[in-house]
Amino acid sequence: MHRDTLLAADPSLRAVLDTEETLWINPRLLPFDTVDGLSQLVISDADIADAAARLRRFAPFIRRAFPETAETDGLIESPLRAIPQMQRHLAEMYDAEIPGRLLLKMDSHLAIAGSVKARGGIYEVLKHAEELALSAGRLTRTDDYAKLADLRDFFAQYTMQVGSTGNLGMSIGIMSAAIGFRVRVHMSADAKQWKKNLLRSHGVEVIEYADDYSRAVAEGRRASDADPMSHFVDDEKSVDLFLGYAVAAERLKEQLTAQGITVDPEHPLLVYIPAGVGGAPGGVSYGLRRLYHDDVHCFFVEPAQCPSVLLGIATQEFERANVHDYGIAGRTDADGLACASPSSLVTRIMTNHAAGDFTVSEAHLYDYLRALDQSEGIRIEPSSCAAFAGPLGLLRFPAGRAYCVAHGLTEQRLAHATQIAWATGGRLVPEEIWTEYLGTYR
User: Is the entire prediction scored with pTM above 0.85?
Assistant: First the structure.
């Protein structure tokens, strides 16, 4: 679709196409009960429960292979932390109203891979390993899965491959190497050098492309298809990745309950998740909608220079939407979000579930990074910091205020709301890179 044609059909996209910070509200969002049955045909509650059970079965192996998970007994989970000083800091810094309580979901500090990709990426690796071991008679579902650590020679005959801008590659590479798979990570030009170095230190083969994410995925898929002993983790289409992310919802619910936080019409939940190709925010948001129905409002956040998920849903071109087709460069320092085209699965399934999509400037990513470091002593990478555009922008943009009116988010209800900025990566960033980040756009 041509830019002028798109603007004629939807003038609200002008700021998006002009790469300005904005909020696009999804006109196709429907009440949960309206789309519940249709959604379950694609991803059901039973599917999510099955994924959660699989991760529990693997907990003994994960604890054995990664002793740092002992505290969570082999489950890969992150803290949910109130950040009141950051909330005040941002409100004062931007003269903005941020109602309710602001929390940080620290997937930036997940064990093993240090990013939200530790959910979906690791889950798909584990599921594939289970299928291979069960099929070969090396495992039964009643076994102690810690025994898988002794099957490295068996798994060494198989290869895992993935296309990535960084964090998904790290989750696939680190876990696959721990199991014993051979691993090839096809990385785009946007990927940070330190992420490539870290993967190679784990024995992962990193193949680099002087092109964007879509090329890395296409080449990885092609290479894997040519090898009958290879499995390709397809970030653009994988249901297994989506399920790994969706499991996060029930765990978040447990954390909210433990902190005495209620979610209901009088105490709404607003969640803001950075989006690249869309897998992680799509899976997490879908899981939350299945639990909280219309009491949760899930927004994606993308770089103004690469709003591919927004365009995929807005145009209904889904994976065929490409930011380059609309004169948008697609270049961003938020390497994990540098995806010119979005996931076919996510843009379709979230068409009726996503509340909207914020876009954020490059400079603000670093402003938020410094603000969080100074106010709370927490460091998350630039792509993670995109999440703060949500709570800052909800009442700043006319579209956000209109959304609140349309969905009964009154001043009183917002005062009792819980807002969650979902931090997607950061724990594994080297110290010298933090120095660079903290000094960027000063």
Answer: yes
